[in-house]
Design goal:
homodimer; 340 residues; alpha/beta; 434 Repressor (Amino-terminal Domain); Rossmann fold; 3 domains; six-stranded parallel sheet; four-stranded parallel sheet; 44% helix; 16% strand; DNA-binding
Chain lengths: 340, 340
DNA sequence: CTGTTAGCGCGTTCAC
DNA sequence: GTGAACGCGCTAACAG
């Protein structure tokens, strides 16, 4: 069924049906009512593919995250979706699995759908991707970190500074033998940025970094057992394990519970992100609070702003919004050291 | 940039460019190579909106889940995506927030994109939705439960039977004062189905159901504290709290730890779903194992099968795949009762 | 306020 | 193996 068919039934033109379907167009109230009624009765559903081709507005925004199976990214995506939905922008969601080549493939595929904006979770992009994005003249927002050389807009925070701040706080609290446990990643990933932040904080007080890693990203709670093995083997005198993320921290804490290692008395643990589990678990997990939802919401606002062509003065002005990233001390690594 | 532009550059017709871009079409190898090279150099990206309109194949499949912020549904969606991606089917993902009206709105919006299949997480649908889906002649797969009156295809399991099986196992293990904690939901939801399964199992051994609920779906780990309050107030003699899902079970277990209530000695706890947290937490959580990823994978296979028009004999034959749902006993409610 | 005309950028179909 | 004509279903732009 096409608009034609709806129009014929009412003895009007397809154009009037088209207009009646959008709020911002001029149609006689009675006509609009009749059209909507006919559409309802017929169960007509407009073909938005044809509409998009004609209007050159796809109604899509694309978002790429490393993993959807990570509650933090899914919170961001949900908040972004919630911001765009009222404006009838449909998200195209892609999961890169922390793989740069896969990201490149997804960007190509998404660009073919002519999204009105594209949101990337910064992880270091392939040169192809950057070139294609430039040619496509599509607004780009990078989220979840502050890239050294942003493509356009940014909503995030410095993962390096955030982890550095947490470690500095813990050092001031008196912890010394702090071992970092992260992921195997040498690229410009958020995990690597956090590791660098840890190293800097340690070096600034004259301590050598103590690094461990077994997991390819993402490190999950299931990696906790092996991570604890690794830490105890390489750095048996560890006072505190600083983890790249909360799920891993929880996994290590659970492994400690199974082995009768008391947290924080025998081993303190910190995470990153302030996931729900960090607040709920007993003890709570010392971490860095990131408001994942606000990243999505702010990104949504930027995307919506970009839909209406900017005033000439604002053309090409890159937005960079920073979200807070504050240490939160909880029972897993309290501000008063109790490690004996 | 259009195909026209690529074609002109090579002195060929747009049609040949179009053919060179798909593997199943007949082009001279040398021509194809030249076309791909030109496309690469120019950074040309085909307009799939135009392509979809002409070919009447959108390359979309739609999936609706109650919540993406639930690791189980996100696992299903990820597995579905993984199955479809190699075939260049892009998922349109919608989150209904457990709201039937919102579901109806999303179905309308998705149908306008002409998806080649639509996947619903059964929750009882509005009549409008069922009618529209019928008219659209779009393949429908309902997942995560066994609807009383399926629309078409189904991939799932009986939530009622699964919970009934777990409770029956726990009753056989010797637990008697089992209190159920679920969500406020009177509709045909999975939560309600699980509650009914609990009630049946209790009644079959002559026990009265003991029901508690404070949370609207989804019950999360953060609801644990209030849930424990509720249980202890209404049924202070509870031996075991049977939860509608693992995150809630974990939340209650953490609340017990904070209050010095020993699990399972003073209070046993069970969940549902076998989420990662049920395996990792200490103690592990007794639950029902559901392979969320296999639901997504099987759904993907069905969707792919439906893309190639079926043989006349198979037309209209509804597929119903059942996935296993087995009780798993862990430390939070072991097979040997220790509640004193 | 409404209708007409003319594409949007491809793929289908048929020639050759 | 390649090209030309046509249409997919809708909306922009203009006319009235």
């Amino acid at each position: 069924m096409r608009m034609q068919d709806v129009a014929k039934r009412l003895g009007i033109s397809a154009m009037t049906v088209s207009r009646a379907l959008r709020a911002d167009t001029t149609v006689a109230p009675a006509t609009r009512e009749a059209v909507l009624k006919a559409i309802e009765e017929l169960g007509y559903v407009p073909n938005q593919i044809a509409g998009s081709l004609a209007s050159r507005r796809s109604g899509f925004a694309a978002v790429l995250v490393p993993s959807l199976n990570n509650s933090h990214f899914s919170e961001t995506v949900l908040a972004l979706n919630a911001a765009l939905e009222p404006h009838h922008i449909q998200l195209l969601i892609g999961s890169t699995d922390y793989d740069r080549e896969k990201e490149a493939g997804l960007v190509r595929a998404f660009l073919a759908r002519k999204p009105e904006a594209i949101v990337l979770t910064n992880d270091g992009h392939s040169p192809d991707v950057v070139r294609l994005l430039g040619q496509a003249r599509v607004p780009v927002v990078q989220i979840w970190d502050l890239p050294a050389r942003p493509i356009q807009h940014v909503v995030g925070f410095s993962n390096r500074e955030a982890m550095k701040g947490l470690i500095a706080t813990l050092l001031r609290a008196g912890y010394r033998r702090i071992t970092y446990f992260g992921e195997l990643d040498d690229d410009e990933t958020r995990g690597a940025a956090r590791r660098h932040g840890y190293c800097e904080a340690m070096r600034e007080v004259g301590l050598s970094p103590r690094l461990c890693a077994i997991a390819r990203p993402p490190a999950t709670m299931s990696d906790g057992e092996r991570a604890l093995d690794e830490v105890l083997q390489h750095y048996p005198d560890t006072e505190l394990v600083a983890c790249v993320s909360d799920p891993l921290a929880f996994g290590i804490m659970a492994a400690c519970a199974r082995r009768g290692i008391s947290v924080p008395d025998q081993l303190a643990i910190s995470g990153f992100g302030d996931f729900e589990i960090a607040r709920v678990s007993a003890p709570g997990i010392t971490t860095v609070r990131i408001d994942a939802a606000s990243i999505g919401r702010l990104t949504g606002e930027i995307v919506l702003d970009l839909l209406v062509p900017a005033a000439p003065a604002q053309q090409g002005v890159a937005i960079c919004e920073t979200v807070p990233a504050e240490p939160v001390l909880r029972g897993s690594a309290p501000g008063t050291v109790s490690v004996g």
